Input
Amino acid sequence: MQLAKRDFIKLLAAVVFLPRIVKLIPQTVSRVTKAAPGKRAPGGEKTVNWDKIQKRGDWLG
Amino acid sequence: MKVVCELCPKKCALNQGEAGNCRARVNLDGELVAITYGFPCALHVDPIEKKPLFHFLPGSRAFSIATAGCNLHCLNCQNWEISQANPDQVRSFRMPPKQVIRAARKLKCKSIAYTYTDPVIFYEYTLDTSRLAREQGIRNVLVTAGYINHKPLKELCKYTDAANIDLKGFSDKFYQTVCNATLRPVLNSLVTAKECGVEVEVTNLLLPTLNDSDEMISNLCHWVKSNLGEDTPLHFSRFSPRYKMRNLPPTPIATIEKARQLAKSAGLKYVYAGNVLNSEWASTFCPGCDKKLVRRAGVSFLGSKLKNGKCPHCGKAIEGVW
Output
């Protein structure tokens, strides 16, 4: 009974402290400047209205 | 795996699935992904004067693109609907770099402007498009706050012909409280762009009571003169209430006039006013003989008297790409 109690305390200590110890281990960090291109429009796609774009520039003369 | 994005001075450390402060760069399965690459949310043909660039191909069209997100969060942002939105809240066009070039050609644009939000956050898209544009003889223009690290900026400058870089205020406190950024990296970017041979113009938007003191404007002008040269065009822009700064009134015209005077006293040769209906303040005068050389009204180009980039009256060379 005594042994089981000791084991239980050990187990409890492991459950409480192990995650904290693991957190202390430095994480693998990747340092990057350039990012990979995204594959799809994150907010959905809309169609280009060429006439409207042309019109906006028309006032340039 | 954690990813640190080293593109801008914020150096966001991103856990799995997390987006950076700009909202456009995400850690997806340990890989940094530019989620707006090839998906501009804004496409327009603008006069180059709207950027504003007054000493670069005047009267030409710029095919202007932007994607959602921004690494600054200015309380007065004019384009906050797209710059301060999550990319997944904004619908976009599918337009890979090749198509941007095709569109610019089709619409007879001499340049492609990476603008509206900030090209820094869609860096890879800007870089790839700029490379292709350079090959095809189309110029590249950045309209940016210049909040980017030295190395990536240098790489981008290889393909950049002109840039309008905001110098939003000449104090770190102003940058921290209004823009969620810092001053030093912006100053570094201005110098780097100039050193790389980019045609640099500077814009300073004057916000009443926040960055319009004589001392701050004067310091800014002297810094521009000492570090970028007296030929660097400087634009003072008039603020109109927007986004989270609707409590402030528009910049008084008198403040713009005062800023122009301070800039001229500091020795800057080309000083302009934006968002003001005064054609004299938008036109280019010869620093040698004071004759009007390039006529503009607002952002409309009305005509140029320059001959091979020189004043036809006194022969003085005028800084710029004409």
